[in-house]
Amino acid sequence: MKKQTVAILLIVALLLAVGCFGIYGYIQTKNNEIKNTPLFSCKASDIVEYGVKTGEEDYVLIKENDEWRVKDNSVAVLDSKKVQETVNSASMIMALGILKDRELKEFDATDVRELSLALSDGTSCNIKFVGEKAEICAIKLNDSEDIYAIRTSVRDILIAPLAKFRASVLFDGLMGEDAPLEYYSFKDFDKTETVIRTKTSVEISNSKKNRYIMEKPYRKDVDDEQFEQLIGVKIPRLAAEKYEDEISEDKEIYGLDENSRATLRFRWGEFDESLYLGATEGGLVYAEIAGRDGIFMINSTQLEFLHTEPFYLLESGMLRSDLENISGVTVKTAENEYKIESRNRKENNKEFFVNGKTASETAFNAVVEIIGGIKIRSEVVQDVKNSGDVIITVHFDNGVGTQNISLSAMNDKEYAAFMGGKAEFAVDRETIDALLLELDKISKNPIKTDEKG
């Protein structure tokens, strides 16, 4: 009985050993020299056509002038670097061995998957993937009767879907662009438009704090950091999710006709691009780049930054020049008028006046500091009458001239600020009250010292 038990245990141990040998144990070779040697080998540069055919894929890639394109398809845009990486893999295909008939029976038959290679010397190679078991697949090379074994991972690399080779980043090279973004505009589907550009040298001399200025919908300095974080860093990352291979000439189908589309345009270093955006389908937005063939789709989440409210990109200060350029301030209310002036402010013989009386530089700077602290609080969306409850005129000595701000009370917290006849922004009432209080104090005590009040 003990001998039978020992025999059974030996048989079990043997079966376990065979199982632990793994997926390679069933690969027998007719010739030991075939194992782990190239099944196919050539110079990667000699491959000029690369064709894949499966149940879902059927494409041929052609190399022309070291660039890869899809045969009989002038629309698809490829990333040649990605194609070449896969071609390099195809230039050396290693065989694990030749499968015998009894071994082949253990493989699950698969739908025919085929790889075709054409070389520059006119020769070709055809590989059919005919079976699969675990991490090994069975292939047939050209017209050979032998069935070879290679790794399934190699097969998956060689017959990758065409989508893998698509050029995904829309503006390749923009990510590494050292030059600053010069111009940005976005015209939405409803034709509202945001336009931002870099300042001219004259505009920079007026206010050195910001590089950018908005032209639409507001004429105002832009907060550089906000603009770059909310807009600038997003443009180079725009990528295609899906490409249309069969394109209709009727752009209305995609919402890309001139009357329907939205348009992103930018100038950035050597790039001067316009991206048209159309209808949304299943979370993807139809798009095309002006001057290029092809329609593709972008994930709608990538485009959310384009709908950033322009208000949130603006510099919060109300002044159109730096504080150091203020030479005088006039403030009028229904009851009072205050006139703050300076002469030779940047010279040794500088003088300051409050309502014509000699004043201290401290008094002058106290008013200027509060003026500089007037910030936009919100957008004005309601109709407000320009009642001129407080009228502020700021004089600059750098060629900007004067800036007029007419304030009309909206509620107990805000004034609507009218500039150029329009009230686009509201300012904090508390700051204006502090300004009027300070003006009242220095009008009574123009030789103000450093103490507060």
Strand order, sheet with most strands: 14-13-12-11-16-17-18-19-15
Report the C-alpha radius of gyration, rounded. 37 Å
> What class, by secondary structure content?
alpha+beta
Largest sheet: 9 strands, antiparallel
| Average pLDDT score | 87
Give me the oligomer status: single chain
User: How many distinct helices?
Assistant: 8
How many individual β-strands?
Answer: 28
What is the share of helical residues?
10-25%
Choose one word for the global shape.
Answer: elongated
Give the N-to-C terminal Cα separation. Answer: 111 Å
Question: Which parts are unreliable, with pLDDT below 50 for 5 consecutive residues or more?
Answer: 1-33
Q: Give the amount of beta strand, in percent.
A: 35-45%
What does this structure look like?
It is a single chain. The protein is an alpha+beta fold and 453 residues long. Helices cover 19% and strands 37% of the residues. The protein contains eight helices and 28 strands. It has helices at residues 2-20, 80-90, 101-104, 152-158, 201-206, 224-232, 361-372, 429-444; strands spanning 37-41, 47-53, 58-64, 67-70, 92-95, 97-99, 108-119, 124-133, 136-141, 147-151, 181-187, 193-198, 212-216, 220-221, 242-244, 262-268, 271-281, 284-289, 295-299, 326-332, 337-343, 351-354, 357-359, 376-379, 390-396, 402-409, 414-419, 422-428. The strands form four sheets. Strands 14-13-12-11-16-17-18-19-15 form a nine-stranded antiparallel beta sheet, with no helix packed on it. A nine-stranded antiparallel beta sheet has the order 23-22-21-20-25-26-27-28-24, with helices on one face. A hairpin with a 3-residue loop joins strand 13 (212-216) and strand 14. Helix 7 (361-372) packs antiparallel against helix 8. The radius of gyration is 37 Å and the shape is elongated.
